[in-house]
Each structure stands twice: as structure tokens, then as C-alpha cells.
Amino acid sequence: MINIGRSAIKVWQNEAIMVQIHRKNEMTVKTPTKSTAAAKAPSKAASAKLAKGAPLTEVELLKMSEKDYMSAAQLDFFRQKLLTLKDDILKNASETTEHLRENILVPDPADRATIEEEHALELRTRDRERKLLKKVEQALARIESGDYGWCEETGEPIGLNRLIARPTANLSLEAQERRELRQKLFGD
User: Which residues contact 80 (CB under 8 A, 6 or more apart)?
Assistant: First the structure.
């Protein structure tokens, strides 16, 4: 269920149901019409977009059939998503470098401590992004090798929804849950 202010969207049997709450005891429920169901099939515009080599959107990606899993168009979508993520991380890193080079002289010890704490927080964030950058580069290498989208442990498809949410994923949801359970039980 997705909450949007006083509205909610719930997916039930592959159909989106829109629920809007008006007052205390009033609500509107909108279900898809036949025209909405027809819109689920890839449109001519989407097919033309694929033929031209234009990048897919998330909606178009999710509408594709299972036999198209990790097709060239899907791989290109994830490659672009990963490259954008990589560029954002590198841009943030350069901004942090510039920000840390600024020398702010503050006579008040409390203000100085606040600034130092902000710097420490920023450095921890960049350290996490540095680790994410390694995962992004590994994911890009998996795209080039043809292994992207397949679980490293089981060889099963990871799934488009999981890859959209976490493009650096290398394990299926079930395999990741098993790994986290093992870590919880036995430690690292």
C-alpha cells in the first residue's frame, strides 16, 4: 500500500485500487477500468521507443513480460541508473572535499564543536557512499559480463522490483534473507 496524503493506492490481484478519504466516514474507491487494463500491454509508443533504443521508464520496464528479463533494453535501463548513481556519488564526494577545505574560524567552542560534528557526520556519509560506489562498479561489471540480474548464490532471477529499489543487489530476496539470518545467528 502506498500512502499519498489522504489517499492510498493498493495493488490487489495486479490491479491498482485508489482509495481517497474525504471526511470522517466518507471515502472514494477507484478501480481500474478496461481502458486501464488495456494500458498494461506495451503501447505502440513504448515499442517504438524500444526500437529506437531510447531508455525505458520504470513503468515500461515493469510492463515487460518475464521472457524479456534482462534483455538489452532492461540492461541499458539499469546501466543508466547505475551510472547516474555513480555520478551523484562522485559529485557529492567532490562537494564534501570543497566543503572540508573551507576554513571557518569560530571563536565559540560550542559552535566549533558543532561544525566538527557536522564534518564527522559528512565524512561518515561519504564513507558509506564510497562503499556503495564499489558496489555500483561491481554491478556495472556484472552488466558487462552478462551476470547482472541473476542471484550469485542460487542463479535465479533477482526480480525487477528488487533491482529498481536496489540496483546493486546481487542476491535474490530469499537468498539475502538467508544470509542475514546466518549472520544474525553465527555472526560475521
Answer: 55
